[in-house]
Amino acid sequence: MLRNYKYIGQRVALAVVAAVGIATAGFTSSATAAELDYGEIGDPVNLVVGYQPYYTEAWSGVVMKGLKLYEKYLPEGSTVEFQIGLQGGIIVNAMLAGKQHIGYMGDMPAIVATTKDRVADIRIVATAGLAFDQCNNMLVRTDAPEFADADEAIQWMDGKVVAVPKGACTDRFALAVFEKKGIEPASYLNQNIEVITSGFRAGKLDAAAIWEPTASRLVHEGLARKVASGASVDENDGGFIDMRGDLIDKRPDVVKAWLNAELDAQLFMADPANTMAVVAMAEEQTTGFSQEVLWKAMTGSTPEAQGGTPVRNEMAFAITPKAQALIDKATVFLHSIKTIKVDTLRKNAVMTEFTNDILEERGLTAPIGQIMAQPDSAYSGPKE
To answer: What's the rounded Cα separation, in Å, for the pair 122 and 114?
Structure first.
C-alpha cells in the first residue's frame, strides 16, 4: 500500500512543479536566482499578491483586498495587485517565477514552496487559519449508501473513483487518510474544483476531497453529500502566507506592514458582527457562489457524524505551536510519499519573528480569535 502512495506522491510532486518549469523556461539561470528590485527601506513598493477567494480558510486575503487594509501600513505611494489562484500550486509557480511576491495558500503548497529554494527562496511567515474542515472535506455522490458514520464512508471509498486537485491541501489530506485507513481507490484523479463539480453532476465520480466554499456549494446544490472531514480522522488543515525571501531580506518594513494589515483582517473576520460583510466581499470576488453558500462555508454547521466541528476556523495569525506541529507533521508525510526530498524544512523556511513581534507590540496573543459554527437559522442574508 505505502509503495502505491509513494508513486502517487511522485506524480503529485510533478503536478506541483511541472508548471514551474514552464513558468521559468524563459528565464536564464542567473535571472531565476536574481533578487527582485523592491527599492530601499521606506520607499513605495509595488506588490503582486496571489490569493484564493475560492478557499475560505484564507479569506483574510479577501478582506485585505476588500477593505484595502494595507494602505494604512505600506509606504505612501505603494501599489498592490491581487491575482486569483484557483489552487495554491498556481500561486507557488508564480512566486517561484518572480511574478508574485506574497501568496495565500493551503498547507501542502505552502510547505512544498519552501523546498524549491534552488529555483527561488520562499518562506512561510504567518498563518491565515487553522481548521479541521476548511480544506479537509470528503464528499460522495448523492446516491451513495447512507453511512452510519464517517469511518464507514471512508471505507466505502476503497476501489472507487476519487478526485482531488493534486498538489493542494486536500491532496495531502486524502493521501494521509487513505494510508491511515488502508484505502486504495480504483482511480485517484487530478481534477480542479470546476472539473470535480462537473464530475459529480455527470455521475462520473464516487467521491472527492475538496475545500470550502466548493464543498458547501456542491452539498447545497444537491450534487454531493459531505460524509467526513479532518475532524473525523484527527487530520487538521491550515492556510498559510508565504513570501519571497528577497522581499523579506530587502524590505522587512514591507513585511511588517503587510502583516500588521493581515492582523487587522483576521481580527475583522473573527468578529461575528462582521460575518455578513466578509461574505459580501467574498461574493464580490468570486463567481457562481451565493451569499448563502459562502456563509455556510465560513460559519455553517455540519452534524458531527459527517465531520462537523464547533470551530470552523481558528484565526491563528502567528505560527503557533499548533500551526508548527501541522507543518512538521505534513512535511514528514510529504517526504514519506516522495512529494518533497526533505523530512525537515531548512532553518529559515518558517519565520515566526514578524508575527510574534507584531503581537507583542499590539498587546495580543495568538490565536487572536475563532469563527464558530452557527445553525442555518443564524443566516441573515438573501436566500436563493
So the answer is: 5
Reported as type and span, the H/E element at residue 5 is: helix 2-23
pLDDT digit string (tens) for 188-230?
999 999 999 999 999 999 999 999 999 999 999 999 999 999 9
- Does residue 172 contact residue 5 with C-beta atoms inside 8 Å? no
The answer regarding whether domain 8-131+237-378 maps to CATH 3.10.520.10 reads no
Q: Are strands 102-106 and 46-51 parallel, antiparallel or unpaired?
A: parallel
How far separated are the first and last CA of the chain, in Å rounded?
45
Do 8-131+237-378 and 134-233 show the same overall fold? yes
**Residue 172 contacts residue 333 (beta carbons within 8 Å):** yes
Give residue limits of the domains in the chain: 8-131+237-378, 134-233
pLDDT higher than threshold 90 for residue 352: yes
Greater confidence (19 vs 169) lies with 169
Q: Phi first, then psi: give them for residue 20, nearest 5 degrees.
A: -65, -40
Cell triple for residue 1?
500500500
Specify whether domain 134-233 bears CATH 3.40.190.10.
yes
309 Cβ contact partners less than 8 Å away, ≥ 6 residues apart: 131, 132, 133, 229, 231, 302, 373
Taking the C-alpha atoms of residue 2 and residue 341, their distance in angstroms, rounded to an integer, is: 17
